[in-house]
Amino acid sequence: MAQPQQSEGEGADKPPLRVGMVGYAFMGAAHSQGWRTAGRVFDLPRQPVLSAICGRDPDAVRAAADKHGWAAAETDWRALIARDDVDLVDICTPGDSHADIAVAALAAGKHVLCEKPLANSVEEAEKMTRAAEEAFARGQLAMVGFNYRRVPATALARNMIAEGRVGKLRHVRVAYLQDWLVDPGFPLTWRLRKEYAGSGALGDLGAHIIDLAQYLAGERLAGVSAMTETFVHERPLPAGGVKGLSAVSAGGTAPVTVDDAALFTARFASGALATFEATRYATGRKNALRIELNGDKGALAFDLERLNELSYHDGTEPGTHAGFRRILVTEPDHPYLEGWWPPGHGLGYEHSFVHQARDLVHAVAEGRRPDPSFADGLQVQRVLAAVEESAQKNSVYTPIAV
């Protein structure tokens, strides 16, 4: 059996933080990179150790363990939670299992990191948040994984807005555009079934931009008016079938039960207005997330396809030479950059997961509430629910429950 991976050198004599992860696909690979790398880049108070990874397919999960450096593999998440060499459970599974795994892990005395969206419903998210509050009283932490908060440029934008660089917020406009479902022949996956994913583009992409908008603005949304659409209502089943649906003969199809796109307007508690678009049908767009915030003293814009940059307009400058200017976010005093490369050497998508692991390790070592907490994930879930309710009512403005 392989030994758990940890950092070399000084990190070896630090108290370990032994991680067990449920799920090994796309998000599992990204989280593995984060845990494997964080202690090699940053001076952490505890050393992440990759103890065990879990998945239902024994051959596939063992291959993932070998590829990403996990010491052991499990095929039952209950067995992973019960392991004595696991201090923290990282949940990278479809949303329908988040609540069961998280609540059980907290009850077993583990810290928890759960991928977004926190759950498939407000009720599940409320249950998870209650369990997290009870666990915090026992010294356990629970965090939801909104990794785009950990891009250095967005963290810098949050600092600048908090310092008053854009003044009183007036407008936020944000879009998250992908095109991987444009082909109607693309096969059905669990992400296209409501019982497993909760929603479609709304929960998958919309959860990210709702959290990012609120994080940057420093305030919460108060209400929404929404539309959603499903463009392709039936898709072919893959040869091996889909979880919960049996494989069928060639040419067989099954219903898509989630949205393909969501559009909504919103109002922040301060009165600032916002527009949101989340779609997996934006032909030509692969992973295009863009947000702009306008205030009475300036504006900031961020584009994930230029994730080492911010655009900033100082509205207090004379109009003769004012305008948006590019900030290259690679300086050592920019957020998270102290552990990386010389100025001008950019980072990538995977680094947001390294920074996520770094922040959670510090929170665990210090015994403080992580950010974002399960309560933050619950609030995003309430916004998602309000969007769905508004869309069902033909775009009637829907207040968000507090």
TrEMBL record:
Residues 156-300 form the GFO/IDH/MocA-like oxidoreductase domain. The keyword Oxidoreductase applies. Keywords: Oxidoreductase. InterPro entries: Gfo/Idh/MocA-like_OxRdtase_N, Gfo/Idh/MocA_oxidrdct_glycsds, GFO_IDH_MocA-like_dom, NAD(P)-bd_dom_sf. GO terms for molecular function: nucleotide binding; oxidoreductase activity. Residues 17-135 form the Gfo/Idh/MocA-like oxidoreductase N-terminal domain. The keyword Ubl conjugation does not apply. It holds the Pfam family GFO_IDH_MocA. SUPFAM superfamilies: Glyceraldehyde-3-phosphate dehydrogenase-like, C-terminal domain, NAD(P)-binding Rossmann-fold domains. This is Gfo/Idh/MocA family oxidoreductase.
